[in-house]
């Protein structure tokens, strides 16, 4: 069934799969997340200058820091699905904004996997320059948001939240990535890209 964009809303539900699309817009530049961050601990996607590898990101401060956190109930019948309309060249920015909102709402960075069907996210491209072993070791550590190519989704482990940026790639890349992303997301799947292409991919297998 085609997804119809509605008001933007990033939230989770334990009621099973449903589509809560966000308002159509060209993706704005992701807004910064509050909190101090030193130059030695850049945010994923913004690697530091020079050939030296950036230090691991500092823990992201939370508004609820110091308070007991209730356990999150993941939906046993599949993730909630949300659509954020964006042009192919703005899908990564839209995905970045979605990640910011998730982190601001209290999601742990290690809960989030971001996939791109076309060009790699800058963080992934940078980290891969140090070799695949070191890159996937960060995935296994699960201490931060992890960015990967959609065609490597089978290698990625399941996480509560998966964000897919449909930012180009072969025609069948989204058709393959979206069903796989549904299987990897235990609570929430957010898809950023052209609604027509996304609906075609969903009709092909989601």
End-to-end C-alpha gap? 10 Å
Output the helix-strand order. Answer: EHEHHEEHEH
Low-confidence stretches: 13-27, 29-42, 45-51, 61-74
Helix content: 25-40%
Number of strands: 5
Key attributes of the depicted protein:
206 residues; alpha/beta; 5-stranded parallel beta sheet; 15% strand; globular
Structure description:
The chain is built from five helices and five strands. The chain is 27% helix and 15% strand. A five-stranded parallel beta sheet has the order 1-5-4-2-3, with helices on both faces. With 206 residues, it is of the alpha/beta class. It starts with 79 loop residues before the first strand and ends with a helix. Helix 4 (171-184) crosses helix 5 (195-205). The protein is globular and about 35 Å long.
